[in-house]
DNA sequence: ACATTACGTTAGCTGTAACTTACCGTAAGT
DNA sequence: ACTTACGGTAAGTTACAGCTAACGTAATGT
């Protein structure tokens, strides 16, 4: 599976989005990420592994802690994927809306 | 669940991404979307319902056909969500990379 | 050396999302 | 009116994602 796909699938889960949004506040260790979330700490670890494989987060060891932060490369992959649709879909959409009056061909 | 979340969850599924990417070629009826996909036609209908609820596709009736097309509003919702991360994460990322030499404070 | 803290990993359970099959309504052609 | 094509919906099954509990490991403090 390509990277954009993994990133989209990763952010498709509610809990992972919660973790990811928590990381927006800055780099944090696992325990702090788990604090307040409705799932256990090991669950957060599993989610972080998925996010890491998707290129969405990066981690660095800091003593006994492991600090995670957002990796912009995963975000870039998604944005690139989205941009493939933008132009074409906008054209199609506008064309469809504007052709409300004429529907007599074919 | 907010709209951006629904859109992300919708595109998190492989089959739905396949349908969505097929729509990049332009508006198409359901049978044509199902053609070539590894799932049955009813399955495609179910996926289209999810995509529609997420604001990612729009449909119009055309005789006995029902033509689907990409709805740019869903794409816009995802893009807006992504943009919330862009600036902050880039700063954090660069700050972390650049502070490789100094790790003696705190 | 021992205890403790912080995480990752594994095994096993469970809810649910995705799928198929079957069915029904509707639009259009003959 | 009958038929055919198109597609949404319901019911039922199944594979897997996400969770917890338990365990293992590495680093730090005392």
Q: Can you give keywords for this protein?
A:
homodimer, 106 residues, alpha+beta, Arc Repressor Mutant, subunit A, three-stranded antiparallel beta sheet, 59% helix, elongated, DNA-binding
Description of the molecule:
2 copies of one chain form a homodimer. Chain A has 106 residues and is α+β, with helices and mostly antiparallel strands. The first copy, chain A, has a single domain, classed as Arc Repressor Mutant, subunit A. The first copy, chain A, is built from 5 helices and 3 strands. The first copy, chain A, has helices spanning 3-11, 14-22, 30-34, 41-53, 72-98, and strands at residues 28-29, 57-62, 65-70. In chain A, strand 2 and strand 3 form a beta hairpin. In chain A, helix 2 packs across helix 4 (41-53). The longest helix of chain A has 27 residues, at 72-98. The model of chain A is unreliable at 100-106 (pLDDT under 50). Chain A binds chain B through residues 1, 5, 8-14, 17, 20, 23-24, 26-27, 58, 60, 69-72, 75, 78-79, 82, 84-86, 88-90, 92-93, 96, and chain B through 1, 5, 8-14, 17, 20, 23-24, 26-27, 58, 60, 69-72, 75, 78-79, 82, 84-86, 88-90, 92-93, 96. The structure holds a DNA duplex (30 and 30 nucleotides).
């Amino acid at each position: 599976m390509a990277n954009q796909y993994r990133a989209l699938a990763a952010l498709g889960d509610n809990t992972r989005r919660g973790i990811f949004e928590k990381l927006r506040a800055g780099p944090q260790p696992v325990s702090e990420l788990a604090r307040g979330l409705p799932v256990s700490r090991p669950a957060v670890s599993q989610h972080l592994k998925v996010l890491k494989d998707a290129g969405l987060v990066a981690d660095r060891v800091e003593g006994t802690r492991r600090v995670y932060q957002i990796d912009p490369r995963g975000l870039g992959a998604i944005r690139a994927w989205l941009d493939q649709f933008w132009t074409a879909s906008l054209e199609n959409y506008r064309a469809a809306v504007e052709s409300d009056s004429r529907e007599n061909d074919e």
